[in-house]
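RECORD TYPE: protein structure
NAME: VOC family protein
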Amino acid sequence: MQVQSYLFFDGRCEEALNFYQAALGAEVTMLMRFKDAPPQPQQSSQDGCGPAQVDPEKIMHANVTIGETQIMVSDGMNSGKPEFKGFALSVEAPNEVEAERMFNAIGQGGKVQMPLGATFFARCFGMVTDRFGVSWMVIVPLVDIG
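PREDICTED:
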């Protein structure tokens, strides 16, 4: 069994993909826009509560690889500001120099939750929320677990 993260960016998915490509070397392995979907039958509704209109250029679904991990992303249905609460994505860096580079790149336009530094459980660890509201933990473990 495999559990994967699926993030909804409420209209900012393409911006997020470009950001993660630059900050973390993310690779987009699949991308489908709403315009790529087959036409849906029109539903009539007496109360006007039919399906929401979505910008056809927005991203319906994309697969992204960061290191050895796949993350799925979407613009979603543009239902309001996304709230990424109660979780964080953790990324392991091979050394302190790379950890600092990733931490600073992810944190551009975001907010540091815990500055990057040595801890009792890691050679280097820090927490930052990126400009999209996604929380990240950057870690260099005490021992090589790979």
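COMMENT: The CA atoms of residues 103 and 138 lie 6 Å apart.
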